[in-house]
Amino acid sequence: MQRLAKFIFRARGWRMTGELPDLPKAVFVAAHHTSNWDGFWFIVYKFALKVNVRFLAKQSLFWWPFSIFLTRIGAMPIDRSKNESVVQQLVHAFETEDHLFLALAPEGTRKPRPYWKSGFYQIAKAAQVPVVLAYIDYARKEVGIGSQFYPGDVERDLEFMRNFYAGVTPKHEHRKSHIAFAPE
Fold first, then answer.
1. Chain centroid to CA 119: how far?
2. Per-residue CA distances from 140 to 18, 26, 129 (Å)
3. Between the chain's N and C termini, which has fewer beta carbons within 10 Å?
4. By 3-state DSSP, what share of the chain in percent is helix, strand and coil, each rounded to 5?
């Protein structure tokens, strides 16, 4: 799979940038999410790096034989019918697993939203793991891993992310969401 993924990057003229952090656990922010192609390129990147980065999928999608495919590409079933929130379920996963890289798209949809979903930040903060910024830049045709930080000061962290993603061009600029959290 790694050779195939690298071949796909070369054949389509894309580059891979950044290095995988030497960490046992982290929440990866996958931004910006404006096209179905974003998921494809992030999954190809994951295979090219030969790293087990997981992402969320609805529990209802995990039916045989599709569940085998989903599990192999890194999907992690999430049960929304449980009494505990998705954030609590994922914090628990970080507590119980020795190694966990979880990628989340805080925009949550391919349509523009006034705010990012803050779940990735809440998970990282509660689990005491870093946030790693990953990106896909269609203007430069590159997918990469960039900076990382431990959540602490929300406004400072949001400004850090806005600065990081300022030079990243999504597939559909008009669908990009503003990097901010909804007021509480």
1. 12
2. 14, 26, 30
3. C
4. 40, 25, 40
What is the rounded CA–CA span in Å between residue 184 and residue 175?
24
| Close Cβ partners of 148 (under 8 Å, ≥ 6 residues apart) | 21, 23, 26, 130, 131, 132, 133
In-domain check, residue 83: yes
169 within domain boundaries: no
Give a yes or no: residue 65 inside a domain.
yes
Model pLDDT for residues 113-127, shown as the tens digit of each residue:
899 999 999 999 999
Tokens of 180: 């901010």
- Whole-structure pTM value: 0.91
Cα pseudo-dihedral 66, 69, 71, 77, rounded to 10? -30
Look at residues 2, 32, 19 and name the one whose alpha carbon lies nearest to residue 136. Answer: 32
Residue 67 within a domain: yes
